[in-house]
Design a protein that fits this description.
Alpha-Beta Plaits, single chain, two-stranded antiparallel sheet, iron, 4Fe4S_Fe-S-bd, YfhL family 4Fe-4S dicluster ferredoxin, globular, 4 strands, about 80 residues, 4Fe-4S, alpha+beta, metal-binding
Length: about 80
């Protein structure tokens, strides 16, 4: 599953730099996560780094973009191939 930043985000800027896939960017009002790029840090870390650093706990699993661990691993592989 991709992650999602809630509107309780305080724009503290700590999540964007820790995202290894550059899936996080500043939206119109608060930070947003691109579901096409979010792998929940699979392939990079044991847990989503944005969730680890978020001081207001406003990052949740996005039920609209449900993915299995296998799908997230496949997405990670595809992202690494296109980066290469």
């Amino acid at each position: 599953m991709s992650l999602k930043i809630l509107d309780t985000c305080v724009n503290c800027d700590v999540c964007e730099p820790v995202c290894p896939n550059k899936a996080i960017s500043l939206g119109e009002e608060f930070y947003v996560i691109d579901p096409a790029l979010c792998t929940e840090c699979i392939g990079h870390h044991d847990e989503p780094q944005c969730v680890v650093v978020c001081p207001v706990e406003c990052i949740i699993v996005d039920p609209v973009h449900a993915e299995t661990r296998e799908q997230l691993e496949d997405k990670y592989q595809h992202l690494m191939e296109t980066k290469g």
